[in-house]
Amino acid sequence: MRRTRTNRYARRVRTAAVAAVGVLALATLTAGCEVEKVGAAEASALPAKTSPPPASPRPISPRPTDDAKPGSGSPSPSATPPRTPSARPSPEPSTLMSVGDRGKRVRELQARLRQIGHFGRSPTGYYGTTTVASVQSFQGKRGLSRTGRTDTVTWERLLAMTRQPTAKELDPPAAEPTAAKPDARCMTGRVLCISKNSRSLSWMIDGKVVSSMDVRFGSQYTPTRDGVFSVYWKSRHHVSTLYDSPMPYAMFFSGGQAVHYSSDFAARGYNGASHGCVNVRDEGKIASLYAQVRNGDKVVVHW
């Protein structure tokens, strides 16, 4: 009986010890400590721990350069190409001469245009409508803009095609009358012989031509009268009381009709007309004529 009790007590003690050992092992595992080393055979049976592969470094894109080319480590063709400086537009040609200008340079322009058949009259030194039309003709033949103004491009092209005008080309001498034989009424005495056919005035003394100049006449509504007249009044700075227009170097021969200088004739040429007077477009020539003509000298207007 006593032995039985002793055996029971011993079993209880062993059970308590085993339980204590289990609690200690569990506590040890919980604390992360190693209870025992695993054998080699057991280790091979365990699944091998694998660590994640190291992250591959991000590729670094090369910076685009001005000389980078596709296929050699350069940015793709879709990349924005480097900007190239745009070409500056050519400056507009500047104007050298235009309507209303006067002087030696205009006279040279007219003489050069006349050399190549674009100006059909003697140079006047005034940039009027006739000169505009001549410049437009020249520009059109050369494929330039037909502005009628002489700009740097037009002038350089004209200089390349012509030579320096001579003194006679710049200021031609007075031309002889077109008619081989003047009107018979002009052959004696001091005469202003005015031809509507040749549109010229010849200052003649005893059948010899002293000087000659271009003239224009009145329109069909205000025609210049034909016939034989005489100078009855001279007025150096005359202004028309009817039209309020200047009539310098006026030499009256028939009522209100006179021979006088016309700035409009110098500017527009034969595109215009007078109110019946005989217009002269060369101021220098009529100034010289005015100084020679006297009251009473004959005037013959004829076809």
What does this structure look like?
- The protein has 303 residues and is α+β, with helices and mostly antiparallel strands.
- 30% of the residues lie in helices and 19% in strands.
- The protein has 8 helices and 11 strands.
- β7 and β8 form a beta hairpin.
- The longest helix is centred in the first third of the chain and has 29 residues.
Instruction: Give helix and strand order, one letter per element, not per position.
Output: HHEHHEHHEEEEEEEHEHE
β-strand number: 11
The coarse overall form would be elongated
- Quickly count the helices: 8
Query: Could you give a short account of the major beta sheet?
Result: 9 strands, mixed
Terminal residue distance: 185 Å
Output the CATH topology of the domain at 184-302: L,D-transpeptidase catalytic domain-like
Strand order across the biggest sheet?
6-11-3-4-5-10-9-8-7
Low-confidence stretches: 23-50, 64-75, 176-180
State the CATH superfamily name of the domain at 184-302: L,D-transpeptidase catalytic domain-like
Q: Output the structural class.
A: alpha+beta
Cα radius of gyration in angstroms: 57 Å
**What's the level 1 CATH class of the domain at 184-302?**
Mainly Beta
**Residue share in helix:** 25-40%
State which percent range the strand residues make up. 15-25%
Mean pLDDT: 79
Looking at the overall shape, the CATH architecture of the domain at 184-302 is Beta Barrel
